[in-house]
Each structure stands twice: as C-alpha cells, then as structure tokens.
Specification:
By secondary structure, this protein is of the alpha+beta class. The protein is 28% helix and 24% strand. The chain has eleven helices and 23 strands.
C-alpha cells in the first residue's frame, strides 16, 4: 500500500485501510489522503516538443489510469479504445498546449472531476491554489451563461462586466452554440447537471497570457464587447463568519487541518449569543476528509460513522468523526443549536459528505442547489515524465446507507434557484431562506435555551 497506509484483514477477509492523519486533497476535485508531488529533476525530464516525448507522456497518463482507476469498468468507457483514438493526435500535436488539450479530452471522457492532468506550468497546489482567469466566473443561470463573480479591480470590472450579465459570444462564436458543442462532444445526458455546470463554467478557460474576445449583454440589454487577457490568480481559502441578528453565519471554503483548528478555536466566540447556525458550504470544493470529520464532530459528536472509501481491490476504511484532536480545547463542547447548511453546484467532495451526513441524521436542513456529485478520492499525485502531474481517482465512496454520492450529489431539502435579478440586486436568496426557516423554528421551539 502507499506510504501512510497500513493493511489489515477483518473477519470478512477484505482488507481494511487504517488511516493515520494524512493530508487529504482539496477542490472539486478530491478528498482523500494524498501526498504532494516530489520536485522533478529537470535533467531527467522528457520534452513534449518532440514526438517521442509526447508519446512517452501520453502512454504514462493512459497506463497510470489503467493501473490505478477505482472502477475496473472505467465508468462504462472503453479505455483501451481511447488510447487508440487519442494517441495519434497526441503524437501530432504542434505545441505543449495542444498536446495537453488532447490529454484532457481523453481524460474528460471518464466524466470524473477528480481525475485530471496538469501541464508542468499549470501544476495545481491544493495547499496554495491558483488558477488562470480572465477576472470573472460564469455559471448557467436561467438557461444562459451568466456572470456570477467579477474580480474587483480586474480588467473585466473596468470593462463594465457585472454579476448578472449574460455572456453572448466567446471569440466571436455565440456562447450558446459553443456550450452546446462542448456538451455534445462529451455526450452529456440531459439530467447530468453536474457535468453540464462544470462544462459551462469552463468556457473561458485557456492558457495564461492568451486573450479572449468577450461579448456580453448587460442589465440594459445592450450588447458590448471587450478583449480580456488570461492571467494567474491566487485563491485564498479559509474560514469566515458574521452574525446576523441571533444567527451565526459560518462559511468554510476548504477543509484543511489549519482551517479545522481555526474553526474549533473560534466556534465558542462565533456562537456567543447565537440561537442558530447557518453553515455555508457553497464555495467549498472539499479538502482534507479528516479535517472535515473534526468539523463534523462539532455538530454531531464523536464516533459517528460518515461512510466508507473502497478501492478497486476492495481495500477500505471507514471515516468517523473524531474529537481526539480537540484535547487543547478542553472546554469545547458539541453544539446542538439549530443548523442550516447552504449548498451549491460548487459544493464538492468532503463538503458533500458533511452535508449528506448532517441531512440524513436530521441534524441540519440543507438549503440551496444540488451539490457537484464529485465524491471520489485520490491516494497520491502522479508525476509525469515531463514534470506535469496526473490525479487519478483511486477510491470510491459510499454513505453509511451504502449510497454513492458520485454522480448523484446531495439534494437540498429546500431547493433555491438563483435568478439574474438576484445577482444584480446582490440578494442572497439561499441565505434569506435559511434565516426564514430558522425564524420559523424559533417560533415553535425555544432555541435560545441551548447555547453550545
């Protein structure tokens, strides 16, 4: 087994993985123990500027997925056929960018948000995430690719783009036509909302330093165009909180050991005089599952089974809430305050496990939209011969009831649909619904009698 794991055999004869506090990965991507890539020795790297080098890297990607992938049926994909289909295009690629585009197309046929390939200059660091952007984020709202975030001070903001604006064209191609073309190329079923959402959100992706011509329609329905350059941006993830009346609103963007410790240290202060809690996981792409289990213990108590991870060889481990790390916080106690969890399409991995566990145990009401349905796990990052990195889903997850969240996600108790009008008016419809629910709860129960 990989370093940091130990194999044990239970009465069933199946191997059980014992897990000892290894860091788990972040993002819409993953949530299982994973080690960082070792620094590559540049003198030993192959070059993808040559046909021979490209084939070496291509074969390494295909073979690693063939050997490690959690699902021996490859989610119904003929993986051997994909090698034959994509290898010639990889060999004939005219640039590193084109070559990695071919690799991403091949990996993308698995329709797995966790299994991803990064070129040497794009290597993703889960601990210090950065990404290429044009200064805005888009999502499908009311059936249209819509701006949901504009980075303050960016060229996009200076050009006049605002939340709620509709993207009409990308490089002079109608955005609707471009999105449908991509969706058709991936053969996405009509009910696969998660993959559709990710596909729409990726329409502006490209290499840093390249430009995109963007057309958009504002609130006044006038169409404008601008040219935006893609650039690297550092993403700062962590913990945030505010008090709105008697409700403590706590946002967690990622699960790491440091964030979990900050949460546990700060919780008594955050809950001071609070009568209810809103836990906002809408921007949480996952992270360290052990850290998530520590956060879960604050709401559920110790020793609660959160589900099981199983690999292709039937090795497994059960994830449980754990307060043993709380010894420095001797005065800390489990909170029983009424709880609402906010979810969205970006709620992924470990965040989905937490939302599902709180929901099925009737510990919290879930409000928002369906989660990503991206709940697979990576054992370790694989370094490619050219210095790139490959992430491969090696573990599947089942809830305590044996339900797979991968491809399914968590369905909210109270669905909330965001509109363009909400974006233009900066109205947080989900948070408003959460507070309304908690107010109704307060009218039926004396929630102020149970503080922590």
């Amino acid at each position: 087994m990989h370093e940091g794991f130990q194999k044990k055999f239970g009465s069933t004869g199946r191997s059980k993985v014992a897990w000892y506090g290894i860091v788990l990965v972040l993002t819409a991507a993953s949530l299982f123990p994973v080690s960082r890539s070792r620094a590559a020795d540049d003198s030993k790297l192959v070059s993808t500027t040559t046909r021979e080098g490209r084939l070496v890297v291509f074969d390494d990607v295909w073979e690693t997925i063939q050997e490690r992938y959690y699902d021996l049926s490859f989610r119904g994909v003929n993986w051997s056929a994909k090698r034959s289909a994509f290898r010639p295009a990889a060999a004939d690629a005219t640039s590193t960018q084109e070559f990695y585009d071919v690799l991403r197309q091949m990996v993308g046929t698995l329709k797995d948000a966790h299994t991803r390939v990064y070129s040497p200059e794009e290597k993703f660091d889960w601990w210090n995430p950065r990404f290429v952007t044009v200064g805005l984020t888009i999502r499908e709202i009311e059936g249209l690719p819509t701006v949901v975030f504009v980075e303050p001070g960016s060229a996009a903001a200076r050009a006049g783009l605002r939340r709620g604006d509709v993207i009409t064209s990308i490089d002079n191609v109608p955005a609707a036509k471009l999105s449908e073309r991509r969706l058709q190329s991936l053969a996405i079923p009509p009910d696969d909302n998660s993959t559709r959402s990710r596909t729409i959100g990726s329409l502006l992706e490209g290499s840093a330093g390249t430009s995109v011509t963007l057309g958009w329609q504002g609130r006044d329905r006038k169409t404008q165009t601008t040219v935006l350059k893609r650039y690297w941006s550092q993403k700062h993830l962590g913990l945030r909180s505010q008090k709105t009346g008697s409700v403590a609103v706590i946002g967690i963007d990622v699960f790491t050991q440091s964030v979990a410790m900050d949460f546990l240290r700060s919780l008594p202060k955050m809950l001071n005089d609070a009568e209810a809690i809103v836990l906002d996981l809408r921007a949480n792409g996952g992270g360290d599952a052990e850290a998530m289990a520590q956060v879960a213990a604050a709401f559920m108590g110790d020793g609660i089974n959160l589900g099981r991870f199983v690999d292709r060889g039937h090795s497994y481990f059960d994830l449980q809430t754990n307060t043993q790390v709380l010894s420095p916080f001797a005065s800390f106690t489990q909170t029983k305050l009424p709880l609402v969890v906010l979810t969205g399409e970006s709620t992924s991995s470990a965040a989905e496990i937490l939302a599902e566990a709180l929901q099925t145990r009737h510990r919290a009401r879930v409000i928002g939209s369906e989660t990503c349905g991206c709940v697979l796990a990576i054992r370790s990052r694989h370094s490619l011969p050219d210095g790139g990195v490959l992430d491969v889903s090696e573990f599947d997850y089942r809830t305590v009831d044996g339900i797979r969240l991968e491809g399914l996600g968590v369905k909210p108790d109270e669905p909330v649909t965001i509109t363009r009008a909400d974006l233009y008016s900066n109205r947080d419809r989900a948070l408003h619904s959460a507070r309304a629910f908690l107010n109704r709860t307060a009218s039926h129960h004396s929630i102020g009698t149970s503080k922590q």
